[in-house]
Amino acid sequence: MGILTGIRVLDCSIAMSGPFAAQRLGDLGADVVKVEPIGGEWQRRVAAGGATGSQVNVSFLSLNRNKRSLAIDLKSDDGKAVLRRLVESADVFLQNYRPGVAARLGVDYDSLAAINPRLVYVSISGYGESGPYVDRPGQDLLLQAMSGAMLSGGRSGEAPSAAGQYIVDAIAAYNAFEGALAGLFHRERTGEGQLVQVNMLDAITAIQMQELSVFTVGGKPQKRSAEPHAHVFIRAPYGAFATADGYLVIAFPPLRRLGEVIGEDSFLAMDEEVDGWSRRDEIFAKTRERLKARTTADWLDRFAKADIWAGPVYGYEDLVDDPQVIHNGTFVEYDHPTEGRVKTPGFPIRFSKTPSEVERGAPLAGEHTREILAEAGYDAEAIEKLAAAGVVGEAE
């Protein structure tokens, strides 16, 4: 039995942040019903990196395991009535509609709490449910830029580089996951549900608690260097460097010890807490030139012996075959009815008594429509009527 076995989640979200949060709840055993339009949400058809899959593209596959699919027309009165019936017995309702859309559909918190006061309602937005930016598009890259995160690395005077992941979406998803769990815990104590609001701007801002506190409390400006230093508030050398056959990273080593290992005599007399800041560009450039002389493996061996923090720069092909990753069971594998053998990152938290499991892969659109409606009290005749009227849909 999973930690959340017996908990019913209605996942009315799309794209990444909401579906990722709902998948995490499903990984812990919750019964997650993905409520999507007939034919499926758009993420089924827009594949990242051109990885389309057979019937379920990889993007959708990665964010929707451990769910059942109910395909329904929420713009119709009958469709809204079906959803309201499901809300009666639901524990969590999760949505990431644009602000105002939930109210127009009649699925805002006040409307659903009137049906089920025990409901934990999780709402995800880009910038918040109100305020001057409420109508702005809540897109990952835009939030990375606005949050200040991009200007904490890279070269002064050059355009900043975005993270290579949908990092704001992922962080917002974890905030929503945590919020849902906290809401359920509150309900266990009090018997009452509540509205839980998460927005992407606050999510990406909050994880910069150290950097922003250095600015707001310590008064230190966010100033990039001429060299591609990896962080504005850490002394040199700190970043990625090319070797004779690849790349490695070094994290703020003792300058004298580093100088001895790489053969840079000018480091031997430096005060790292003074020169490490005032001579950042010089230290970075000299380290870069020295590291070109040997292979990554050679340098990493030398650094390990000198107790200098350094590591390889992996690609995905290296990561999936890494012995520690294999030992940890970081990836899970399962068989999907249309996509074959699937290997994907699993649930990252380990529980000794209630481990997470993959009960099912990402569903086909409407694959569980009849099953879910029957559980909600609809008889076979009523389900046929809804299907014939186009209110609900089924997997083909």
Short account of what is shown:
Helices cover 38% and strands 15% of the residues. It has 396 residues and is an alpha/beta fold.
CATH topology of the domain at 8-206 and 348-393: Rossmann fold
Largest sheet: 7 strands, mixed
Report strand order across the widest sheet.
Answer: 6-5-4-1-2-3-12
**Superfamily at the CATH H level of the domain at 8-206 and 348-393?**
Crotonobetainyl-coa:carnitine coa-transferase, domain 1
Text of the CATH class of the domain at 8-206 and 348-393: Alpha Beta
Descriptive overview:
With 396 residues, the protein is α/β, with parallel strands linked by helices. It has a domain at 8-206 and 348-393: 3-Layer(aba) Sandwich (Rossmann fold), CATH 3.40.50.10540. Helices cover 38% and strands 15% of the residues. The chain contains 17 helices and twelve strands. Strand 2, helix 2 (58-63) and strand 3 (67-72) form a beta-alpha-beta unit. Helix 7 crosses helix 8. It is elongated, with a radius of gyration of 25 Å. It starts with 7 loop residues before the first strand and ends with a strand. 37% of the residues are buried. The model has no long low-confidence stretch (mean pLDDT 95).
Compile the SSE list and pairings.
Layout: E1 8-11, H1 17-27, E2 31-36, H2 58-63, E3 67-72, H3 77-88, E4 92-95, H4 101-105, H5 109-115, E5 120-125, H6 140-146, H7 167-190, E6 194-199, H8 200-206, H9 209-216, E7 238-242, E8 247-251, H10 255-262, H11 272-278, H12 280-291, H13 296-305, E9 310-312, H14 316-320, H15 323-328, E10 331-336, E11 340-345, H16 369-375, H17 380-388, E12 392-393
